[in-house]
Amino acid sequence: MKKLSLVFFFCIAYFVALSQDKTLSIDEYLSIVQQYHPIAKQAFLFNDKARLNRRMALGGFDPKLSAEKDRKIFDGVTYYNYFTPEIKLPLWYGIDLKGSYMETEGAFINPENKLPKNGLSYVGLSLPIGRGLFIDERRADLQRARIYQSFARNQQQIVLNNLFLEATQSYTDWINSFKNVQVYTDAVKLADIRLQGTKQLFLNGDKPAIDTLEALILLQNRQFKLNEYQQQLTNTKNQLTAYLWLDNNVAIDPEKLNISPDTLAIQAIPAANLLQVTPNTIAQQNPEVQAYIFKLQELDIDRRLKLEEIKPTLNFNLGVLNGGRDGFQNFNAPYINNNQKFGFSFSMPLTFTKQRAAYSLAKIKILDAQYDLNDKQNQIANKWRNYLNDYYTFTNQIALFQKTQANNKALLNGEETKFRFGDSSLFLINSREQKVLETQEKINELQAKRLKTMQLLKYLTNSF
To answer: Reduced to 3 states, what is the DSSP secondary structure of residue 397?
Structure first.
């Protein structure tokens, strides 16, 4: 969701000055949700997790210091005394840079371990030529960490989008209940006025008593309907406050929250570019689809690791020897030719059965994930088509019912005119008026459904 330019006084206005009735717009509502809701705060922890995960991966390239001490004294005689500190610096491409210093003393030292009196220093490197040349576990961990950073940002957006979708759906239900309460509040007032007028006409002898009974029943029916919508309004407001929090993770008390919705939001029309997005574009860019793509990237790293294991292990170790503690004092070609240490290690299984099976399994996992990705992309594309169809259908139905409402009001006005001239009855007026109320309820319902559909379109396009 793009960050909205909401300053803190909005929260103060809505959550401190509770004694006054405030209008809470949907944008302000979502800003408060994003800033204070525990799930939103939890979503932002993904960034910290990704940063620490990458730091852990970089730890695979930390220099390592080690030391080995071995001494033997028997019957007062020092047989040998070895001390070998070493520092190792892991580099890229699996290379390890090494430096060490060795000291030995004693009466029974193996001739091959005899060193100069001032010790012997060593500077060299270990180089993998076979397995581990192109990728190894520490480089794989760093690549996974980089993918996880993108994955974490994507997961954060998925969590926020789900939260915003649920929150806006509750806001829409709140608007719908609020508008219906307004409709029937006015209807109850009108029915009460009509009842009082009918009673007066009865007392004047102009109307029969049955008309007052009919007016009373109409008032009672509308009061009952108003009570139903007031109950819905209370429930939807309670549901709304589940997404409204104060600082320090303090939940809002619904009974102390005097706010009303922005009723114009239910008539909102989405931006044109939102409706012009193609299903294929949505299927490529949707955050839930991106999660599968990141999974495929991670599985490909595993595949490369398994492929690297179908190679013999061949490591070369070479370095330069110098007397004393300074391992860098002689680094010319003639000296190196006469003062060096070289070796290699080689190993390999004869059939690579385990490694080849592991590599084949890694490829199957990628294929399996690719199928999931294709299915998810198709689901997202179909959802987009359905939501877009719903949006246009609701828009057309709203326009149709608004025309029907205009006609119903015209019929009601005509019936009231006839009633004043004695050519109609209270029953007919009430019937015409009931049609107006029912049509308005339907318009409110369709507008709420369209607004919910708009929110689903925003959800798929990651445009909250």
So the answer is: helix
